[in-house]
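Lay summary

Proteins are chains of building blocks that fold into shapes. Our project writes down both the chain and a compact code for its shape. Here are two examples, one after the other.
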Amino acid sequence: MSALDRFREKWREVPGGDDVDHRVFSDDLLSLPDEEFLARWDSISARRAAGVVGRMEPLYRDFFRGRRVLELGGGLGFDGLRFAAQDAHWTFADIVPSNLSVIRRIAALKGIAVECHLIGEDLSFEALRPDYDAIIVIGSIHHIPFDIARSEALNALSRLKVGGRWIELVYPRERWLREGSMPFDTWGTRTDGERTPWVEWHDIEKVRRRLYPAILTTVLDFELASNSHRWLDLRYTGMGRTVDPTKFVDVVGQPVVLEGGNRNGWAFSGSKGAFRPIGRVDLRPLLTNLNAPFAVDLILHINEGIVGVGLVDTNNQYLADTEVILESTPDPRFVTLRSAETPSFLVFRNRHEDHGSTFVVRSARLREA
């Protein structure tokens, strides 16, 4: 059995719209005569368009028109064929041959021009042209383990223009927590039915790690359907340098200057107040052997309250987009702060007007980004 066989076996079954309990198999659809086949596909597509993903169509209808788009995990083509019918140049890539057969047949019956690519064991996209304007991934490659998904994603990224967009729908960490923090090889039975072999939560930093060393800037990052889904839209600006992962400096253990907070080791508490300082760590002595851009990777356990973690310069001004606001949760939070500028201090502050906060810094590492 190949590494992808169990995923192929599952994903010849796709959602019949947004209803997890209503599934449809591509082989069953293909067995129908044309008229019934088209009517069945149209009915499911209409339910899909009325759901979470369909509500994103107005954001992208004009953007996709006339552009080349590669969809990873196209399923039965419900999303991509709507855009292709509106003059997008669409390529469907999938690991299931019968899914692509459904797409080709629907496209032929509707008179829509599309291209299809069967993703093989080598996860290669070399057969495709290297000038796509966007790659869209609607809840597909988070259904394979991270290392396999990383290989697939990087291979696909080689087909994207510099300046193009990586657009993805994922299941967020908040949903994973809400549904019991299950192992990834069993969580999928809750999200996508009993036959689902795998699903992982993702946030924007995890997608960045999957696409590393690509340089990506955020266009959109927001939750959908009460944090059951998250929509990410990133602009690809080229490949960055490959950084030695062993080259970092531990921040934990460095002197801490308290500014209104208290601490016991690296356990901190802060008083109520929306922007009340707690403490800071001087990063300047740690930068000697590192070159910009920089990143600080942290693992924090927020026991109560809301905490802001960020990077500031010597004038105590926050560097662009470097503060993250963290609410208390039952499990540790993994956070990466990135800056093209040179940070002077790592700072912690309370972020709730009426409540204080307590948290523990389990790990903090300064490195080249």
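And here is the second example, written the same way.
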Amino acid sequence: MEAHDIRAAFGTLPELTVTSATTEADAMAAMRMVASFNQCMVGMVRFCGQTPWERHPDDELLYVMHGEVDVTVLTDAEAVQTTVRAGSLFVVPKGLWHRQLPRPSVALLFLTSMDGNEASTADDPRTGT
């Protein structure tokens, strides 16, 4: 058991520039796991550039430490976009495809599933096209 100084940790965290050439290994190297919580991990990341689509078997919590980010969530009926600003949190419902676009960069604290996560670079991962 220990307390974590999140503000200090963000000060040493490198910024990832997400591009079409960014690999999963690149992304994982830029993230820092802070703690585990039930079947999830508490992590942190600082990045710019649009992420690929992703979905998780559990809800995902995003807390914006610095900057702001547009989060797009694909429901069965539509794409819903929300801007999340510093000091705010957003919960992505489990099983829904989503991606983030920082404006221009963002530092996130997140809580997400450790296993069963999926990613897609398709224009619409619901259809695979």
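What can we say about the second shape? The chain has one domain: 6-113.
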